[in-house]
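Q: What does the assembled structure look like for these inputs?
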Amino acid sequence: MGKLTIGCFSSLVGSMNLDFSVKLASAAIEKGHKVDFWVSGNGTMLSIKGQKAFKDYTHLEKTVKELMTKGLTATACEACAEARGYHKENTIEGFKRHSMDWYLASIFDADRVLHIGGE
Amino acid sequence: MATTKLGFIVQRPPYKSENPKLALTHAIASQSVEIYLNDGDMVTADLAFIGDGVLNCIKNQKAMENYGLTSTESHIKSTLMLDLSVFVCREDLDKFGLSEDDIVMDAEEFGAEVKVKVVPFSEINKMMEEVNHLLFF
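A:
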């Protein structure tokens, strides 16, 4: 099985890119691949806990938590998160926070990289 | 010992979205990635500005004065100081009526020896074929 690194820079609400990226990660994990998931810029919104499940707004906290129990490694850009007031204490348990070099290190030995840009 | 080559392609204009700056900061992160890798392994980053992205390279940006932010120009200079290869598409500069005189070409004031390369798109295409992974911003 391969290793997939997915980077997504779009916001949780206001774009469907994160929905797509998380679905893609889920499909890859179901097939037995290893998936590293990096969020940067507005994408760091995904890492925030306490997302309310309104039906008109994307909410992926539950999905991401489930995927992490199946092996997903999810990491947020720490500087991008802090710049937005998303602090460690507001971060979903298990969702890592690192500097941008973590993403490049993950890409280093990835079989495929899917970089899904921002707005 | 292995090297993974990355190509960062910037195609969005500056100050409209965060994307160009994220491209630059992620490319700059290639200089500290070794802390996560085995000895001898490395990641290299080439940057190319194409389409509307060439507007990021216009010199004398006043981002600090107007927004209180580090300018994209300043980040480009940082990449030159770190010896990253920076390409700017000549055809796209021409479309905006810009020339090498209008854009950041070097960071000599910071001691950078590397300069921006204004090249035909065919050369950027060659770079894109040579890297292991492409990241579009």
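Chain A has one domain: 3-116.
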